[in-house]
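Milestone 3.1: sequence recovery, worked example.
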């Protein structure tokens, strides 16, 4: 008997996608296959385990015959008394007034008006400022404890302070030398002068030829502060620069006793300025200007070392 031959059947080549294969080998190399398998098992098993332990809650319908608790709250009914809130009863002893009518136009006859001139002073270290303030006070009638006490206190203050405040100014003493070149090309001191009581904002050596202006003092560092003129092209000496300009220091600080030389460009002359003393003195006790108040902070009435 002849067998019939049909077409040859071949098993298809089953091949996993490349990304699945790469993921499998990557997890295997990193040893993450076991943790991922455990995580998948836990995701499936946990809901099943938790869902089987549910307990049915029985709802008991309320009974109609339940008695109320022994200690139940009770409402107390109080009789209203409108008389307590009746404004005629509460305000019966008062008379109505017109709110648009000015009532207080003058002081009572027993009151007296007295003008007192007081002088206040504010001090910060060695600097101070003063100002006269005129106050209008009302003296109550005799027998008032508050008025008599304030009057006695004011009299005692006036007797103790003398009715005035002392003002102070910060000044310095400086030695200024003029250094010029002679015909032989040598430098020579042609003029030396002593300045006493130089106030704040004074220009040295003078207003016409100004090389440095006294601004004040740094009490914390114990240094004097000067503003250097724009006509100065060089500063020679030991100093600290606070603000530096394009060519030279514009604001500098120097200790008492140190000498600085300033090259004044318009004339080519050098000026040597040495501060020999710095102190705080009563206002008006020197020939300086009165604009030097409140320029030195922190030393009180002591001289600057």
């Amino acid at each position: 008997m002849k067998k019939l031959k049909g077409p040859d059947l071949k098993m298809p080549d089953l091949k996993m996608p490349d990304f699945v294969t790469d993921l499998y080998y990557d997890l295997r190399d990193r040893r993450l296959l076991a943790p991922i398998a455990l995580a998948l098992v836990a995701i499936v098993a946990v809901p099943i385990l938790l869902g089987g332990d549910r307990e049915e809650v029985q709802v008991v319908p309320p009974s109609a015959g339940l008695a109320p608790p022994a200690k139940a709250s009770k409402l107390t009914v109080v009789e209203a008394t409108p008389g307590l809130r009746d404004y005629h009863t509460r305000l019966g002893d008062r008379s109505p007034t017109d709110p648009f009518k000015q009532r207080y136009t003058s002081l009572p006859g027993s009151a007296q008006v007295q003008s007192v001139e007081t002088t206040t002073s504010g001090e910060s270290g060695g600097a101070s400022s003063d100002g006269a303030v005129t106050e209008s006070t009302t003296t109550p009638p005799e027998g008032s404890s508050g008025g008599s006490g304030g009057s006695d206190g004011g009299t005692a203050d006036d007797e103790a302070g003398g009715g005035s405040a002392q003002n102070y100014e910060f000044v310095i003493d400086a030695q200024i030398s003029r250094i010029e070149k002679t015909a032989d090309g040598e430098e020579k001191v042609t003029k030396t002068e002593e300045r006493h009581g130089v106030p704040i904002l004074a220009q040295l050596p003078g207003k016409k030829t100004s090389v440095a202006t006294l601004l004040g003092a740094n009490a914390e560092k114990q240094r004097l502060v000067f503003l250097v003129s724009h006509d100065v092209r060089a500063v020679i000496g030991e100093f600290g620069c606070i603000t530096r300009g394009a060519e030279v220091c514009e604001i500098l600080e120097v200790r008492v006793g140190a000498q600085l030389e300033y090259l004044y460009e318009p004339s080519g002359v050098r000026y040597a300025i040495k501060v020999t003393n710095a102190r705080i003195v009563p206002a008006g006790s020197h020939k300086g200007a009165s604009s030097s108040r409140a320029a030195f902070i922190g030393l009180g009435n002591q001289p600057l070392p």
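The chain is about 15% helix and 35% strand. Confidence is low (pLDDT under 50) at residues 118-139, 143-161, 288-305.
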